[in-house]
Design a protein that fits this description.
Blueprint: H1 3-11, H2 19-36, E1 39-42, E2 49-53, E3 66-67, H3 74-92, H4 102-120, H5 128-148, E4 153-164, E5 170-184, E6 187-195, H6 202-216, E7 222-226, E8 230-234, E9 241-245, H7 249-258, E10 264-267, H8 272-276, H9 278-283, E11 284-286, H10 288-299, E12 304-305, E13 310-314
Length: 321
Amino acid sequence: MNLSDLINHATDKGRFHTVEHYIDFCARYLEYVDTGLQACIISQNESHYQFFQYKQEGSFNITRPLNSRLMYDAEGFTQAAQQFRITLETLRDGQRPSGDLRENLIRTIYTLQQSVGAALDGLAAGKSNQARKVNGDLFERLIRLLIVSLNVDCVSGTMQIPVRDVDGAELFKSSYQHDLLLSKYDELKIIGSVKTSSKDRIDKVFMDKFLYNRLTDTALPHIAIFLNDVQRKKTKRENEYGVSATFLPGHFKAYTVKLNPLDGVYYCDIRPNMVEDALLSQHIKTIDHFFYSDLWELLDRKGQALEEVAIKEEDGDDGDE
């Protein structure tokens, strides 16, 4: 595939309806990267990040920052994808995969999604909003497909929540749209948000949990899954780039301490302060923790009867990055 073919493929969300669709696209994109780039630009402030620059067919566009510690190349991805399939099969069978496959799980999810995002970065500048929306939608779908592949009921949809008075009489219904609605044994177990970045969105996730649980008098777990929290920034020198963080630690801590903690926050590309800071490290983990342990623990908690909430299933196509 040339870059135009890859871009056309990535912008057609109808081509991504199974995990294998993501794997196939990723393999083709990585093969293109091997020989088709104008340049690979190294970040000036965090050298493990790099940017791909396309040739004229991609208007010499420069991609989002890509973490070389996580992003597989074409050769490495072939074996990684097979290991990834084995990990999913093991989890689906109710077993815990070998601990040495955790890194493969993180890196494969990261590479699958960043291949889509980087391909979309080849779109003309006037289509950047379209690229962000498609990329966000496809990340939501990828996470949902991974969960479903483990034989866990998971949809994206809108719920009609009954709000009752002190005597239990229904006053009205309140609508809530969520990226992930996980259920088991006719109970809603987990509500989740999936975004490529927490930028401008972290406040809403905390507020969603607070309002939902206050309105329903439940303690239903709310989680958030993010791809990364870095963006490209221009340096003082021409044609040189660096990265900057989009995560707001002060906001996260304030909401965690003064409002309510989330029941799980997960990243593929976790930032150093999320590991080093004592409070952040208690609440933020790499995404392998969700699939290896937290998902199953949360599913075993008491949930909310599905008959209490009318869920209208959607395809999750209203998200963004």
